[in-house]
Design a protein that fits this description.
By secondary structure, the protein is an all-alpha fold. Helices cover about 85% and strands about 0% of the residues. It has helices spanning about 1-45, 50-65, 70-85, 90-105, 110-130, 135-145, 150-165, 170-190, 190-205, 215-225, 230-245, 250-265, 270-285, 285-305, 310-365. The chain starts with a helix and ends with a helix.
Length: about 375
């Protein structure tokens, strides 16, 4: 009877322990699943209906790590929020969050912090390019490039620098920059990386009627079709549609614009869908649709320009102010130290002279 009691007790205890372990495991799995799902929502626009939930989730994770004093992962979650804000058009908030993430890890040098710095600086470069603050954008891209640890990151940042040069009507330099990125990609023998580089090269070449433009765009498309890469295919179709639109080949432009829309559906990315539909509207013969597209873009740009706060510049000014203050403080400390050293030297000299005189006087008496 006693053995039955202990046997039953052991089974009950084991059951409770296993249940608790499974519960903990399921909760942990749920948290991981939520993190990955909401990351897709903010970074890739995967499920637009969950945008508010995604922001709330990442905000709570940021607050949680900040309360624990974990500035590194607080900055990581903040950087994801910054990317999400950018993707959904809130550029001012995106800038504020990216700058705050940088401030949290300003002096950190671990791998997570370096990754957050690289991404945040690159994002700020994109934001400053949008407002045509080219010098500041270029400086941010260069700082981000210094932190790049993979070929993919390096090529992505080089591509952004080339876009910046193109905006400044430095097309020849932009093409040379992208050609360098393409050759770098070839060295790594990564077909998706090569596809991205050659497609970007072809796109910029197409803007200046370079003879290799169409060939390079088609190379990028072939590699992406071969590797079944929907997000890459969207970019290829969009660029090819633009190529034919600029050359008056409306049927081909419409064909690739529609393919871009279908690729956007496969990517489940609302920002892609918006771009594809915008291109289809541009190609529409209806003057009202074209006028609506033009006004929508113009009003959006005006609203964005009004919202900009140049937070990154302010952050840099504040850092410079602190650096200047620290430099002045060090100079004052050095000056005070020199005065003390000089005073000690004078005292030592006086004592030495006094000692020598005393010795001489004693010698004379003797």
């Amino acid at each position: 009877m006693k053995n039955q009691f202990f046997s039953s007790l052991f089974i009950l205890t084991s059951f409770i322990a296993i249940s608790l372990a499974m519960s903990g495991s399921l909760n942990a799995q749920k948290k991981v699943d939520s993190t990955e799902h909401y990351y897709g929502v903010l970074v890739y626009g995967a499920d637009v209906s969950k945008v508010d939930s995604a922001f709330n989730f990442y905000e709570s994770r940021f607050d949680e790590h900040l309360r624990k004093g974990d500035s590194i992962y607080a900055a990581y979650y903040l950087e994801v929020i910054a990317v999400g804000k950018y993707n959904f058009g809130d550029f001012n908030e995106s800038e504020q969050r990216a700058v705050k993430a940088l401030a949290l890890i300003d002096l950190k040098q671990d791998s997570v912090s370096e990754g957050v710095k690289k991404s945040s600086l690159n994002l700020l470069g994109v934001l400053y390019r949008k407002r045509k603050a080219f010098k500041e954008a270029h400086e941010l891209y260069e700082k981000s490039f210094e932190l790049a640890t993979t070929a993919s990151d390096s090529i992505s940042i080089i591509n952004n620098i080339a876009n910046l040069l193109r905006d400044q009507e430095e097309s020849r330099l932009a093409i040379d920059t992208l050609d360098f990125a393409y050759r770098m990609a070839l060295d790594f023998e990564d077909e998706l990386l090569i596809a991205s580089a050659v497609d970007n090269l072809g796109y910029v070449q197409s803007l200046v009627n370079h003879p290799d433009a169409l060939s390079n765009l088609q190379k990028g498309l072939s590699l992406r079709l071969k590797n079944d890469n929907p997000r890459g295919l969207f970019a290829s179709y969009l660029h090819l549609s633009g190529y034919y639109k600029d050359r008056g080949s409306k049927q081909e432009a419409l064909l690739y614009a529609e393919k871009a829309r279908l690729s956007a559906d496969l990517c489940d990315d609302t920002t892609f869908e918006h771009k594809a539909l915008g291109l289809l509207l541009e190609l529409d013969d209806d003057a009202k649709n074209r006028r609506f597209k033009f006004l929508s873009d113009s009003l959006r740009l005006v609203a964005q320009e009004r919202a900009y706060s140049y937070a990154s510049m302010q952050f840099n000014v504040e850092k410079e102010r602190k650096r200047t203050f620290a430099s002045e403080l060090k100079r004052e400390e050095d000056r005070a130290r020199n005065i003390v050293i000089q005073a000690i030297a004078i005292v030592v000299l006086v004592i030495a002279i006094f000692t020598i005189l005393m010795i001489r006087m004693r010698q004379k008496k003797e």
